[in-house]
Amino acid sequence: MSASGGLLANARRQLRQIGDARASWAWLGGLLIVHAAIALGGGLQGMAGWYETLGLSREAWSSGLFWTILSHGFLHGSWLHVGLNGVFLLAVGARIEHMLGRRVLGLTIILGILGGGVAHLALGRGLLVGFSGACMAILLLLTTLSPQSRMLPVPLSARSLALGLMIGETLLALIHPGLGLPGFAAIGRVFEEQGFGSWFLLGHACHVGGGIAGWCMGRWILRPRVTIDRLRRERARRETERG
Fold first, then answer.
1. What pLDDT, on the 0 to 100 scale, is given for residue 179?
2. Is residue 126 predicted with pLDDT exceeding 70?
3. Residue among 128, 108, 92 nearest 205 (CA)
4. pLDDT at 228 over 90
5. Where along the chain do its domains lie?
6. Which of 40, 101, 173, 185 is 20 to 30 A from 220 via CA?
7. Closest Cα to residue 32, out of 79, 71, 97, 73?
8. Phi, psi dihedrals of residue 169, rounded to the nearest 5°
9. Burial class, 50, CB count within 10 angstroms (exposed 0-12 / middle 13-18 / buried 19+)
């Protein structure tokens, strides 16, 4: 088979996986329904109160709005925002669903939202909304389980892609001028002066927290399983040591 034939076969297989990924489509459907309701209510301006009540910020958290650690993941700022996260969900979530099932996908999504929220409270600034913590979680889960696979269209191994993303997002979170970290904040101000201040509108800390949650999920799945043979070997070893 030619290289092009192999690529086409792989693309067809991935499209079939996406088409069969009912849980991924259900999650996407929920996100679209929520954002459609927001759009009908007037968008960011018309639904500002809902964003303040359901979006995550240090102020909301300190005021006792503890549900925002989860609810922020289901709000989005625009159709482009929800669309990009939705495409990512289908592209990566369908593979997780195919490999591990809908329960693991759902648990990883929830952990990613929570992990992203915790990281935002620790390092982020402003109001956080969006599904990107969950997206980073399912990506890091996939790269942890299959580190040598190629992540098309990027010509990198999954391990290299995950490492690069996590390092980049961590640095961008740390150089946020609002954090005031010595040295890092100065770098952030240079970025602002050069016209890259919009970078700090993204939830980099959330991405880091979601990625860590996905990595932890992957390590948990790959943990050594307790088997009868393993228990017998451990018992034989202990008996040998006592003898």
1. 84
2. yes
3. 128
4. no
5. 20-242
6. 173
7. 79
8. -65, -35
9. middle
CA distance 51 to 68: 10
Residues 94 and 139 sit within 8 Å (Cβ to Cβ): no
How many whole angstroms separate alpha carbon 17 and alpha carbon 218? Answer: 21
Q: What are phi and psi of 96, to 5 degrees?
A: -65, -45
* C-alpha closest to that of 173 among 112, 114, 121: 121
Q: Are 134 and 105 in contact (CB under 8 A)?
A: no
CA angle 104, 29, 83 (to 5 degrees): 100
* Res. 53: pLDDT tops 70: yes
Could you tell me if 145 and 221 are in contact, meaning their C-beta atoms sit under 8 angstroms apart? Answer: yes
Q: Which of 75, 46, 81 is nearest to 60 (CA)?
A: 75
Superfamily of domain 20-242: Rhomboid-like (1.20.1540.10)
Q: What is the C-alpha separation between 42 and 99, in angstroms, rounded?
A: 40
58-100, pLDDT tens digit by residue?
Answer: 999 999 999 999 999 999 999 999 999 999 999 999 999 998 9
Tokens of 207: 């991405």
